[in-house]
Protein 1
Amino acid sequence: MSTFKAPPKKNLGQHFLSDRSYIDRIVMAVNPKPGDRLVEIGPGQGAITFPLLKKHGELTVIEFDRDLITPLMEASEGVGRLTIIHKDVLQVDFSRLAGDEGPLRLVGNLPYNISSPILFHALEHAGAVRDMHFMLQKEVVDRMASGPGSKVYGRLSVMLQAYCTVTSLFDVPPGAFRPPPKVDSAVVRLVPRPAAEIGIADPALFERIVRDAFGQRRKTLRNALQQVCTGADIEAAGLRPDARAEQLEVAEFRQLATYLGSLPPGARPA
Ligand code: SAM
């Protein structure tokens, strides 16, 4: 049997989880049930993969590092049915992967250098995803889960919370990994909201409002959103033009997007 011989690759964000207690906590948080379609992003040397496979019997993993493919396959023999997709996760069409067989449950100790692109990629396929349990930099998880008034409340918080419920589960120190990363980590659970609950008719308009509003977070909405709408529009949507983005609830961003989207074509943001 070949083992995992290649040294960790920095450019692929390889920090392998080695503390059994945190691995167990992740498996407990995922709590797979018969019939669940588990997909792990970045299995690495299998720290989370094999406990999950043992518990659930089958698992699909997406790994970009070719040096890990054969060792993963060999190590899975006798443990369970492991399907390996050797690809960049950003090129994987989760909707296609889910097919007609039910939504996916995504799990992963994500490569931190591309964690935000992975989150937004998963959001694009939110209809094919039942939930996500991800290990990320704690600083990113804090931003994802924060609310109005917090210094770290921003674009990431609003975009994710508009489409998912976000729950920070627990923190993980650098010493739990080999090699240890420079920062603290945390595990977060994301559960995509049902389409009817999201209530965003024009996702591109919503995204633009959020991006511009936080692009200049010290400015009032009236000034930050100059390219999108007028102060009168903001008022007509039921919001204060002199408020700042960091004071607005997710629902208020949605309210503004709904109002602007309902304007006649000439008055709507281009
Ligand atoms: N799950 C393992 C663990 O907890 O020990 C490894 C986690 S390590 C932080 C991230 C993993 O993602 C590595 O195995 C790395 O090779 C893989 N990876 C990095 N970029 C990737 C990409 N674009 N697509 C798929 N996997 C990727």
Protein 2
Amino acid sequence: MSPAIAKPLLSDLVAQSPQVPLSHVRPVGDRPDLVNVDHDSGSGIPLIDLKQLDGPDRRKVVEAIGSACETDGFFMVRNHGIPEAVVEGMLRVSREFFHLPESERLKCYSDDPKKAIRLSTSFNVRTEKVSNWRDFLRLHCFPLENFVDQWPSNPASFRQVVSTYSTEARVLALRLLEAISESLGLERGHMVAAMGRQAQHMAVNYYPPCPQPELTYGLPGHKDPNAVTLLLQDGVSGLQVQRNGRWVAVNPVPDALVINIGDQIQALSNDRYKSVLHRVIVNSESERISVPTFYCPSPDAVIEPADALVDGDHRLAYRPFTYQAYYDEFWNMGLQSASCLDRFRPIDQRAD
Ligand code: OGA
Ligand code: NI
């Protein structure tokens, strides 16, 4: 793999410039407002304890998950079942990877969004005008045996540590999808069945310290195109979610993971559950690492709202589409606040 480098990795730029380079400066009017953000923990997203999810109080936990999906689209979970050592190992190899010499990291570089394994920068350097303050390694993780041999082999423990984490993350994703189905009054297996063979992708996001965080984004406001996202973040803040028109900081809580509903659950739930706008802000002091696991339908799965959720009061919100068609549309549109979902509404309900 000898990379054709469209733009260098961000970490290289950082070493060269004491200011944000023009390639990363957003136009005035499209910059993050860092002042009007709710930081206080009372306004944060719900924190749900999963300890009783498989016990006699399952119903209560399922209801808490349902109401978080309906009102916030985001929640945190603790006692989620992924052992602490596995979580810590994942963060450790992520950091080690991004601290490798650039020449070593570049062996994985590609700007082709269709590649199953790749290191890149920003979001889609082929299409966007202004870059984001992020490098990322993207890995397909399921079925593991199809992909693991293509993952980076440096750091030496990378494949083993990331295999363990992604296997545990899959177990948690499946438990959450069952709870989400039940909370909608559907069969426990509904969401998983609707997603066909399913896929699991992971990103390891690396946000270096940024000399002028007010000029650029780690990631601008977007909604996740997949079904459900499980986000592991290190101790550094940066994620913000939109609620009632305001940005709310999701500050890291020790041992908790952040869960969010993606566009596919919004479609399958006929708009009952919300895929919510979120963004990443960078800071001048510390690097930040986050590891989202994107649980996705298989490309050929046909996504359509569950019959039981469509009635006289809740008309059908989407026409059937394949996840492949959706995903292609998402990458073509780029990250923007207008949801890609609107393009899949029945013709008479489309806003555009
Ligand atoms: C994403 C995302 C949040 C974060 O990768 O889609 O929203 O905190 N990441 O890195
Ligand atoms: Ni996201």
